[in-house]
Amino acid sequence: MQQTATNDFSQGSVGRNIIRMAIPMTLAQFINVLYNIVDRFYIGRIPGASTTALTGVGVCFPIITLLSAFSGLFGSGGAPLCSIARGRKDYERASQIMGVSFFLLTATAVTLTAILQIFEAPILHAFGASEATYPYASDYMRIYSAGTIFMMMGLGMNPFINCQGFGRIGMMTIAIGAVLNIALDPVFIFTLGMGVQGAALATIISQAVSAVWVLRFLTGKKTILKLERKYVHFHSGLAKEICGLGLTGFIVDFTNSAVQLACNKMLGIFGGDLYIGIMTVVNSVRTVVSLPAQGITSGGQPVLGYNFGARRYDRVKAGIRFQTMVCVGYTALAWLAVVLFPHFWIQMFNSEPELLEHGTAALKLYFFGFVMMAFQFAGQTTFVALGKAKQAVFFSLFRKIVIVVPLTLVLPYVHGLGVNGVFLAEPISNFVGGLTCYLTMYFTVYRKLSADP
Known about the structure:
It contains 16 helices and no strands. The chain is mostly helical and 453 residues long. The protein has one domain. Helix 9 (236-270) packs parallel to helix 15 (389-410) and helix 10 (273-309) packs across helix 14 (373-385). The two termini are 28 Å apart. The model is unreliable at 1-6 (pLDDT under 50).
């Protein structure tokens, strides 16, 4: 095995190792969200139909989140296991995990594409498309879903590059596709007059390029663990382990989709298409603002997992402390930036006066208590990195399904809160879910790391 000593996270400063991984991974995540963020940026400026088109495409985002959930189920589920196996020098098992994950991604992508193509209309209406917004949602989703295999392959296999310590290569995977998407979007949307169809086409072309890049690296000579045909098959035991740990990321995305669906339904009742459009913008802002915190915890995941596999528990605890402090500091600054300059964030995606007027109050309310998300990020990542699948799954479900969805459905009816009740559900969940997750991690994992797992 070549490069067995490469990217040994048991050596050097833990914080430096995390930052070394986090910087390219943060950039990669930022570039990754540009696929959809750039689409929203341009769609929100289509002459004569910007808000309606943006709202229509916003209806598709819970569905796209579901597709990403399946990528995370196999990619984010397999990569930590791969990292732990690599820390134990068990390269055969690590390669098997990667091969089985690839098989699961491919089979699932084909199945989901068929479902979305056949049942597109009822799915879009179920997710909140109105008579006015359905044509835009349909134009976008029909093309986007045809490229599901590219999206899932790029997102699902990229963690296997990062878990080997090749953060810069992982960043380049996403960067190539995103830059291409940025270049193609205005050409297809405006120059060729394709509108939202052009945005979707530009996206899947870009994702296809990213997918090819990922597979070429993982089958090439520079990778530590190579994706080989003999490992690409179904293995029930490994599939169970991968899905067990990946269920955390899957539930995070799945519950995000459930929350978006609940929000669309309630906002449609109490505020109409305008407020569904506002929520599309608010979610876009949250996606951008959350990236550095997610990058830090993503960078910490392979470092924590490797040291846990190597039984370097002092370094695992140091990594947990480091990522917690950085996330708390960052989320506090991010919250101030959103509260002090709300117009700046909203105008990134839409500048129509009505949306700007009503969206400002909604944005401030939604981001209240954002700093508490730091504890959710740090606690959740620790569970995943150390292979604590049950705890990670529980807290994914707890914050979204137990807290956010019920509050979203109930608060609008309390004391006439209406649409404000929908936006208030998120900060409440940040306080309750974030603290509960982190305190549980501290008492059940952190304080016991001096003993054998």
